[in-house]
Amino acid sequence: xxxxxxxxxxxDIRVGVVGYGGAFRMGxxxxxxxxxxxxxxxxxxxxxxxxxxxxxxxxxxIETYSDLETLLERSKVDLLAIITPHNTHAALxxxxxxxxxxxxxxxxxxxxxxxxxxxxxxxxxxxxVLSTYHNRHWDGCILHAVERIRGGAxxxxxxxxxxxxxxGKPRDWWRSSRSISGGILYDWGVHLIEYALQLLDxxxxxxxxxxxxxxxxxxxxxxxxxxxxxxFAVARFSSGQWLTLTLSALDHLPKSDRGQLExxxxxxxxxxxxxxxRIVRKDGAGGETVESGLNPPSxxxxxxxxxxxxxxxxxxxxxxxxxxxxxIHVLDLAxxxxxxxxxxxxxxx
Length: 349
What we know:
Largest sheet: 9 strands, mixed
CATH topology of the largest domain: Dihydrodipicolinate Reductase, domain 2
Structural class: alpha/beta
CATH architecture of the largest domain: 2-Layer Sandwich
CATH class of the largest domain: Alpha Beta
Distance between the termini: 19 Å
Number of domains: 2
């Protein structure tokens, strides 16, 4: 990927956020992580005046703007993190990219493959960086899983089952609105798919999607487009492997012994949770061995360190636009398949 300019050191990279955020204090978190990587917090754009005041207090001297256009006109900020609802990512990112600013977009990169393509084209045309905040790429659970599984701990990987959920009515916030969030599969699903893609080989071939709707929607009068009750997807890869993804608000009996990811191989099954891991192996004669342990600490700070190293020293970019598009392509095809009732061929591997 070409870059608009090079920087002598990370401190020369002026950074900011679009959306200081209420939930999870994400604006502050992004700026703190950028600062930890050596970059310089410079600007915040936020439509909520009270949140702008908080930003000014937490980062004394930072530029504050009530809209993105004013920031782009007046600020010399080099890199912007977009921290807004999912359905706004593409349009905001394209505007920043066209203005010659590097962009790190909160996950998911966008909702549709076409939106991702538009963002990638804008970055390439402007010669600037586009990446996604896949900080969980460096979660301790997946770092350990990749090390053990690539090292042959369970033999040849056959399939991965990814799942999360329980039984409960969606909250009254934008993440439960399908038109804004993308649907039940998107929020945690993008993380689970990104985990799985680090362990699967070959190109994506096709995706089938299934969804159940109508149970929770009548009980959520504050939303006229409530997320699906449950979403399921199966993705087929050219390697012969497959991935399933389930996100549910209807699971009355989630299995306590199941992991966020269950990776089945020819020599065992690796069960991955955020805190711990297990490998279960059968010996073919009725015997079973179980190996288990705690995952190492997560290293999510490496995302912005990698961005800084890329801009200053030309180190390889870990979360490239093409990589960030892959989980979105799976999710997009799953939603289309659930709507049309047939498998959808992949455009990108």
